[in-house]
Design a protein that fits this description.
Chain lengths: 613, 613
C-alpha cells in the first residue's frame, strides 16, 4: 500500500508537492525547490519563515507558543504561520510571501556587471507571475474584482501602488468566477499587464530584426530559456535592399511608413503564432516582446520619422529605449503586453549592437576585444584594456556575404557550396548537405576568392588573370569555372565573375576599413587584440583561415577568435526577461562612443587600402 | 519718443515682458508674474534666484564677483546667473528652473485637505507644459531628437527618468525643425504625453457622464479655469432608460458593449471639438480627460464587464481609478493623452459622488452635512460631526424629475413650467423664458404636487380627490387641469394625472427613504444636520419650500440649505488638473462607507413611510 501523502500547493508559484504527514512546511517548501529563509535553523526564534494559510486551520498542527510569541496579533489574524513550526495534517494551500524566500537562490546566470540583481532571480524578472486566490464577492464583501486582487497582492506580496488598464480588467470578472477566485496576475513594474488562468505562465518573444533576415525566439519569461526559434527573410527587401533606399522610399512616400512597418510586424506575428503552437502554448501567455535591430530598422518598425536619419547629420528621432503596446504595433497580443526596443547608440549603430555587446560580454572585463557582427550593415565594437573605453562604428558592407549581388550566390541552405579548395587537380567543393551544388554561400565565396588569390588566378588588386587554369571569357569579363554544368544540381555551370570578386572586395574592404579606423581611434595595432568575437550567422560559419587570407578580419592567431552565433538575438533574449540585462543595455548605450565614418579623416585612405588582396 | 525697452522671454512659461535697460532679471521676472525665491532680498548672498542664459552672454552685465563666489564652475558653464546680479543690456531669453520659483505663489484655491501640494501651483499640475529650446543636431552633436529633449529637461529642469512612446516621438523631428529647435513638452508624471508647437498650451476635458445627460467642460490645464462648457442627452437612453436595463442589454448582447461605449464617446468627442473651436484652440492641445459618472456609466464607458454589477452582490469589475489612452477609447485625441476615471465607492456609488463630495468639501470640516445629488440615480452622502465618518448610498429615483414618465414632462428648457401657485382664483404658472407653456419640468412638478396637497386636491396618500376645482375625469383616472389648451404653446391642455403624481411620489419616496436610512445608520435626526447640500441641475433649481412641503428633503430651516450646481462636474474639473484633488478623490473613495439599501433591515419600512404626502 503506498504511503499516504499530503498535497501541499505553494502559491504564487503554482508548485505542488506530496509529502508524508507530520513533516513541517519548511520540509515541504524545500521539496518544492522553494528554500525559505531560516537563520535559526528551524527553532522558531528568527521568525523569518513566515507563510500564510487562510481558511484551512485544521490542515496544520495548532499554533505553538513560539508562534504566538513571535507573530503579532495582526499576523495571526492574516493566517500567518512559521513554516518551521507548522506540521502537515491535511492537504493545504500555502501562500509564500517573497520576503520569506532566500533571494538569489534561483540564480542561473553569472552576473559580471556588478548589479545587485541577479539574472533569473525573482526580483530580476521583467514580468512577474503571481498566482493568487482572492476572497469571493458576497453581500458582506462588496469590493470590486480588481480591488480584491490589489488587496491580496498588497497584503501577501507587499506589492502596492499597482494599476491595471480597463483592457486588462475586462478579462478579470469571468476568470475569477470560472477558476473559483484563483487567477494568475502578470505584473510588470507597477502595472498589471494581464490576467491569465491559474496554471498559465508568461512567455516572451525576442526578435533580431535584420535588414535581410528576421529571427524570432520564444522564451520562458520566468527563466530566459529559449523554447523554440525560427527565421524568415525581411519582407521589406521589396522596398529596397539596404536601409538607405528603404528610408528614402518612406521619406518620399510617407503613407508607406505603415506598410513597411506592418510587413515586418506581420512576420513577427506569424512566427510568434507558429512558435507558440510548436510548443503547445497559448498566444494569451505571451507577455513581453523585445526587438533589436539597427537604428533604421527599429525606426521603420516603430514608424518613427526617418527623413533626418537618411541625411546628414544622420540623427535618430530617438536613441533612447522605446516602448509601446504590442497591440498598437499591430501584433495579435492582448492586454497591456509591451514591445520593448532597447536604446541605440547613434544613427547607424543600433540596439542590435548593444544587444550583441551585452551577450558577448564585451567590456565586462579588462581586455582588448574586437566584436564584429557581419550583416548587410556590419557593426564593429572595440573595448580597450585599461581604459574602460568602448568605441563602435557601422559600415555598409552590403548583402554580398548573404549571397546577394553574386551571380550564383545563395543563402546558407542545402546545396550551397560552403567550402572550396583549389587543388592542382582542380577545384574541390563541399556543399551543405553534401548533395550536388546549387550555388555558393558566403563562407564558400570567401574560400574561393582566397584560393583564387593563393593559386594566382587573382592578382593583389583582385583582377582575374587570363591564361590561368579554369579562367575563361565571360559575357562582360573573364570568369572562373568552379563547378562544371554536369556536376551541379541545376545543370548550369557555377562560375565566379570579375563582378562577383569586386562585390566581395567592396564588402570586405568596408569591414576592414572600419576595423582599421577603430584600431587607429584607440591607438592600437591588430596584434594588441586579446580576442576577436565574430557574431551573426555568417560570422559563425565562415572559415577563419580564408577570412584572414583575404583580410576580411585581422591576421592574429586563430585561437584568439570566438565565433558566437547570433549574439544580437541572444542579447535580445536577455533584455527581454531580465532587469539586469535591461539596465546593462541602457548603460552600454550611454557608454559606447560612436565614430561617424563619413567624417573620420583617415577613412578614405583606409578604405582604398583595404580593397587589396 | 517711447522709452527703449528690452524684451525678456521667460521659459518654460513662454512669458514675455518689456522693461527698461539696467533693470535686473529679478525685476523683469517680477513684472512677468514669476516671483523668484530670494531670501537675502537681492544681495546675492542666498544664491536662490538662479536662472539660465545660454548663448547670449552680451545680453546681460558681466558676472559679478558675488556670482563667481556663489556659483560653482559647473553652474557657470551651464550659463547660470543670479537674477539679482544680472542687469539687462539687450533682448534675452531666460530659462527659469522651477527650484528658483517661490512655490505656492500661483495659489488660487484654498486646500483644506492638509496635503503638501497646493492646487494651482506648478507641482500640483497633472500635466506640466515645458517650453524648451534644444541645441540643433550637427555632425558634432549626433544625439537623437528625443535624447536632446530629455537632456535639456534633465539639465535645466531636473526631470529625469522620463519616457516617450513612439506615437509621441513621431511628432518631434518635424516640430523641432519647423520651430527652430523650440518645442513645448507636455509632461505627465514621468511620461511625455505630447509635443506641441512652442506657443501651444495644454487644455483638459472634464466630463460628468450622467445616466440621462452628458456635461462636458473645456478647462485650462495650467490653472483649472473653465473656458467653455456644453451638455447633451446621453444617447445610451435608446438602450434603456435606467442603468439596470442598459447593463442587462449588454449582458445579454456582449457585442453591444462597444456600441454603448462608442455612443457616449461620440458625444464627448463631438463636444470636445465644438468647445475647442468655440475658444479658437486646437484639438492637439487637449492633453487630459477626466470622466466621472455612476459606477454603471463608467463601466459601460470603459467596456468593463457589467454582468456581476447587475446582479447580487452587485460588485464592480474595478472600483479603483482607471486610466487608458484617449485614442484607445475612441476619442480623436492623439499622442499619449490619457482618460482618467476616478475611483468609485461601490457598485452603485460611483466616481460622480466622489467628485461631488470633493467639490462641495463635505467631510473637510467637522460638521454634520448631508449631500444629495438628484438624478436618475440619486446619490446621498452624510458626514457626521465628531466622528470623521462619511456614509453614502444610492437610490433609484428614476428620471421623473427630469420630466420623463410625466405626461407633459419636459427638460428645463424654454417653455417649461418651473413654478406653480394654486391661488383661489385658479392656477398661476411661471415658465422658463416667460412664454406660453410647452410642458412642465422637475421644479414645476414638485410645486404643483405640493400645491395640490396644500389646497386639498391630493390627500395624504397622494390620491386625486374628485369634486375639487380643476379635477376632471381622464382616460384612466382623475386628472387636474393646470393650463387650459388656449393658454399653451401647443394648443393642448397641460394636465396632471394620477400616474404623474404616483411617479413623483415613488421618486421622492426613494430619496427620502435613503436620507432616513443614512440618518438612522449615523444615529442622527434631521434636526442635527448643520447643512444640506443640493447638487446637480435639478437640485439647484428646485424650490426649497415646495420640496420641503412634499418631503423630498428634510424639513430644516431653509438657511441651512446650499444649492451648489453641478458639483460632480466641478469635482471632475478639479480632479482633471490637480494632483491634490486626485489624491483627495482616492482618499474619499477609501473612506466613504457604503450602505447597500437592499440589505438594510429598515429600508422597506422607511420607503413605505416616505411615500406619504
Amino acid at each position: 500500500m503506498p504511503e499516504h501523502k499530503i498535497r501541499v500547493d505553494f502559491e504564487p508559484f503554482g508548485k505542488r508537492v506530496g509529502i508524508a504527514p507530520g513533516h513541517t512546511l519548511v520540509d515541504a517548501a524545500r521539496l518544492a525547490g522553494l528554500p525559505l529563509t531560516s537563520d535559526c535553523g528551524g527553532g522558531g526564534s528568527c521568525g523569518q519563515c513566515v507563510v500564510i494559510v487562510r481558511d484551512q486551520p485544521d490542515a496544520l498542527s495548532a499554533l505553538t507558543t513560539t508562534e504566538t510569541d513571535i507573530l503579532s496579533a495582526e499576523q495571526l489574524q492574516l493566517g500567518q504561520r512559521l513554516a518551521c513550526q507548522a506540521e502537515l495534517l491535511q492537504d493545504v494551500k500555502v501562500d509564500v510571501p517573497f520576503f520569506s524566500l532566500i533571494t538569489g537562490q534561483r540564480l542561473q546566470v553569472e552576473s559580471a556587471t556588478g548589479e545587485d540583481l541577479l539574472p533569473g532571480t525573482w526580483d530580476d524578472l521583467i514580468v512577474k507571475p503571481y498566482q493568487i486566490t482572492v476572497p469571493p464577492a458576497t453581500l458582506h464583501d462588496l469590493r470590486g474584482d480588481l480591488d480584491r486582487v490589489l488587496d491580496v497582492l498588497a497584503e501577501i506580496h507587499g506589492c502596492t501602488g499597482l494599476s491595471a488598464s480597463p483592457m486588462v480588467v475586462r478579462l478579470l470578472p469571468d476568470l475569477l468566477r470560472q477558476y473559483h477566485w484563483q487567477v494568475k496576475v502578470l505584473l510588470r513594474g507597477s502595472v498589471i499587464i494581464n490576467f491569465l488562468p491559474p496554471n498559465a505562465y508568461p512567455l516572451g518573444v525576442a526578435v533580431d530584426l535584420g535588414t535581410t533576415k528576421v529571427a524570432v525566439y520564444l522564451v520562458d519569461l520566468t527563466n530566459g530559456v529559449v523554447l523554440a526559434a525560427e527565421g524568415r527573410p525581411n519582407p521589406q527587401i521589396g522596398y529596397g535592399e539596404d536601409v538607405i533606399s528603404r528610408m528614402i522610399y518612406v521619406k518620399n512616400k510617407p503613407e508607406s511608413a505603415a506598410v513597411l512597418s506592418q510587413a515586418v510586424v506581420g512576420v513577427i506575428d506569424e512566427l510568434t503564432q507558429l512558435l507558440t503552437a510548436q510548443v503547445q502554448r497559448s498566444l494569451q501567455e505571451v507577455a513581453e516582446v523585445c526587438i533589436v535591430g539597427n537604428t533604421a530598422m527599429t525606426h521603420l518598425l516603430l514608424q518613427l520619422p526617418v527623413g533626418q536619419l537618411a541625411m546628414a547629420p544622420y540623427v535618430p528621432a530617438a536613441a533612447a529605449a522605446q516602448e509601446m503596446r504590442a497591440a498598437d504595433l499591430g501584433l495579435s497580443l492582448h492586454g497591456d503586453v509591451r514591445v520593448y526596443v532597447p536604446p541605440c547608440v547613434a544613427g547607424y549603430v543600433g540596439a542590435d549592437l548593444v544587444a550583441m555587446t551585452l551577450a558577448s560580454a564585451i567590456g565586462q572585463d579588462d581586455r582588448t576585444v574586437l566584436g564584429i557582427d557581419i550583416g548587410t550593415n556590419t557593426e564593429i565594437i572595440l573595448s580597450k584594456r585599461g581604459t574602460r573605453r568602448l568605441v563602435a562604428l557601422s559600415c555598409a558592407s552590403g548583402p554580398a556575404f548573404e549571397g546577394a549581388h553574386i551571380r550564383f550566390g545563395m543563402r546558407a541552405a542545402a546545396g550551397a557550396i560552403e567550402r572550396v579548395w583549389l587543388n592542382p587537380e582542380g577545384p574541390v567543393v563541399q556543399t551543405i548537405g553534401n548533395g550536388p551544388a546549387v550555388g555558393i554561400c558566403g563562407s564558400g565565396i570567401i574560400d574561393v576568392i582566397a584560393e583564387m588569390r593563393r593559386v594566382g588566378i587573382l592578382n593583389t588588386h583582385g583582377r582575374i588573370q587570363a591564361g590561368q587554369p579554369g579562367v575563361q571569357p565571360g559575357v562582360h569579363s573573364l570568369e572562373f569555372l568552379l563547378v562544371p554544368a554536369a556536376q551541379t544540381a541545376t545543370g548550369e555551370a557555377i562560375l565566379i565573375s570579375q563582378h562577383d570578386v569586386d562585390e566581395i572586395l567592396l564588402a570586405k574592404g568596408a569591414i576592414m576599413a572600419g576595423i582599421q579606423v577603430l584600431l587607429a581611434v584607440c591607438d592600437l595595432q591588430a596584434q594588441d587584440l586579446d580576442e576577436i568575437i565574430l557574431a551573426g550567422a555568417f560570422g559563425t560559419y565562415l572559415n577563419l583561415d580564408t577570412a584572414i587570407a583575404i583580410s576580411l578580419v585581422p591576421n592574429i592567431p586563430q585561437e584568439r577568435f570566438r565565433q558566437v552565433g547570433n549574439a544580437a538575438g541572444d542579447g535580445a533574449r536577455q533584455i527581454l526577461f531580465s532587469h539586469t540585462a535591461r539596465k546593462r543595455a541602457l548603460q552600454l548605450a550611454r557608454e559606447i562612443e560612436y565614430v561617424e565614418l563619413t567624417v573620420y579623416p583617415g577613412f578614405r585612405k583606409h578604405y582604398a587600402r583595404s580593397m587589396w588582396l
